[in-house]
Amino acid sequence: MNSAGRPLLGGIEAGGTKFVLAVGHSPTEIIARHEIPTRDPATTLEHVCDWIEGQGTINALGIASFGPVELDRSSTLWGHITNTPKPAWTNCDLVGHFAERFGVPIGFDTDVNGAALAEYEHGAGKAAGSLAYITVGTGIGGGLVFHGKAIHGAAHPEMGHIFPRRHADDDQFEGICPHHGDCLEGLASGPAIKARWGASLSELPSDHIAHAIIADYLAQLAHSIVAMTAVEIIVLGGGVMRTHGLLERVNQSATELGAAYFPGGSKHKIVSPGLGHNAGLAGALMLANAVQPDH
Questions:
Q1: pTM for this one?
Q2: Handedness of CA 277, 146, 114, 195 (dihedral sign)
Q3: Are 51 and 26 in contact (CB under 8 A)?
């Protein structure tokens, strides 16, 4: 609670490359923001706790984390990162660590589900009934929201681990996913691009074949999501999507793949995040807001 008596929420967007932290009075009222690199769990989580404590006393905390994670509250592993390829983070008890430190209610979901909820409520999906948020960065993941609810099944979706049809000019690269090799994440994530071509996509010349290849793979993902769910808005975020012209290439490729077949027509859109780089943070604060006392 701050001096004016307004509850203070804490938000953590836990990513494979960096943790982004915030405190605010609501998901859209961020009053302080901070970023730290993702190092080993002990170092990273201690830094997170110290920064949040330095901002004041929080009323609730929301964590939107890279995964895979355990979201089943009946499981003894709820709140854990599970079998992630991120070194040292397998079986890390995120919720337990912060619950012990802060003693407040904690909302927990994937980073992409958090971003999807925020974009649906406050960003690119405000006028729609359904939205998918895809991050293309250190990994590739996706969250799906229908009528204000993030979709969960036995666990959370793992959209980055579908197997796309291989591009004709990309048939030699084996992929880097330690579990699936040449799944989408193994072919089109930031580390996969660098492993294949020695540079990030934004560093490669605009006429480099990499741009067409990555756009094709991401368009295949968008096509598959629309075909399976009929979602209206697909938001593409993450570091790779900051590459100039990539969104336009993905849209063009997805249009070609769709072949004017889907009955939703122009209701289907592929767009940039309406909340920019704050989508994940806003989602984390939404998770906090949902569990705070007397909410």
A1: 0.91
A2: negative
A3: no
